[in-house]
Amino acid sequence: MARTGSITGILKALRQASWRDFRSLGSVGGQNFFLFLLLVALQPESAQFFFLILALILLFPLSADPMQKIPADRRATWPLRKWEWGAIRLGSLALSPISWAAALLIGSRTNWSAGVLLLGSAIVLQLLRLLVKSSLKRLPEANWFYWIPAPPGVIGSLMRLQWREMLRTLDPYVALLLVICTELFRLSGKPLESAALRIMSLVVALAISTQTQVLFGIDGSGAERYRQLPIRGWQILLAKDLAFLVLLGLLVLPLDLVSGLTAGVVALAIGHHRSVMNVTPQAQWRFTSGVIFPDGVIQSVLLFAAGNVVREQGLWLAALCVFAWLASLLFYGWQWDRNRFARS
Question: Highest-confidence range of 24-33, 239-248, 283-292, by mean pLDDT?
């Protein structure tokens, strides 16, 4: 009975950890891209593609192995036999959120094939993960984000730090998948409307625009270290903004660079307020979670409005957007310094 109690206790702990991770995926509800999906859902034919993109990205955290929540060095110290670990392994399979979703779909008469496909996809992802992990076992501490180069100077070092944190969220991978799908469609030779690339560049900008509301939040508790740096608040904000714009520029380069960057500048000008005045820590490998109303709504509307007409209106509109961004940068950089000195 004691041995069975140990198995039950471990499974209960894994269940709590899995449920906690599943609830953390609710951060998608604070996404500007999620707001976009709700609006596009009014036209189901158009919404299917974007919902599929979101589902593919969510498949990775949903199919995570619950056993990975127990560190390997800790598992090695527990006095459990092989058959007990086998029982825990079998029990943990039922704790994965993807197993819950697949069971519901398979249990229904109409969507059982989708459930089988979902479960099979999760198994393939886990096999690929194990394959990659085994091939890199000689480099267990390798972190590929540390290979990101830094531009010169203090600003460049802060930009690299921001890139590392941004790439530890799910937002850029939604944007990347949107770009890949668009390019694959272009390579197929099928006709593409003239405005399609511009619209897709704006959707890509929207997909990562929530990060402009949490420029300090994605650092987690490490955001406090910025208060110790001997540089001004506007310089810190500038580094984070440039990191965001460079990443956005690389994503929209194959689509419409001018419209995409204009949209990004507008998103930053609005997002500075919540980034500085309400620093909310964000979880890694989850969607960044901002505030949909009013910040997200205002960002989405103005982002699309400016990015959609900038090529028609010309230089004056682009200059106006840049001026608004610089004004926001200086004002909220001053606010950051003010808050920093008030705390010291």
Answer: 239-248
What pLDDT, in 10s, does the model give residues 22-52? 777 778 888 999 999 988 887 777 778 888 8
* Tokens encoding 141: 């501490």
Q: What is the mean pLDDT of residues 89-95?
A: 71
Rounded CA separation 17/207 (Å)? 28
d(CA 144, CA 142): 6
- Check if the beta carbon of residue 197 is closer than 8 Å to that of residue 160: no
Highest mean pLDDT among 5-9, 138-142, 255-259, 284-288: 255-259
Full 3-state SS string of the chain: CHHHHHHHHHHHHHHHHHHHHHHHHHHHHHCHHHHHHHHHCCCHHHHHHHHHHHHHHHHHHHCCCHHHHCCHHHHHHCCCCHHHHHHHHHHHHCCCHHHHHHHHHHHCCCCHHHHHHHHHHHHHHHHHHHHHHHHCCCCCCCCHHHHCCCCCHHHHHHHHHHHHHHCCCCHHHHHHHHHHHHHHHHHCCCCCCCCHHHHHHHHHHHHHHHHHHCCCHHHHHHHHHHHHCCCCHHHHHHHHHHHHHHHHHHHHCCCCHHHHHHHHHHHHHHHHHHHHHCCCCCCCCCCCCCCHHHHHHHHHHHHHHHHHHHHHHCHHHHHHHHHHHHHHHHHHHHHHHHHHHHHC
Q: Give the model confidence (pLDDT) of 158-185 as tens digits.
A: 999 999 999 999 999 999 999 999 999 9
What's the start-to-end Cα distance of the chain, in Å?
Answer: 57
Q: Which one, of 165, 65, 77, 205, lies nearest residue 123 by Cα?
A: 65
Name the one residue in this structure whose structure tokens are 């007409």: 309
Per-domain residue ranges of the chain: 2-142, 151-343
Model confidence, pTM: 0.87
Amino acid at 265: V
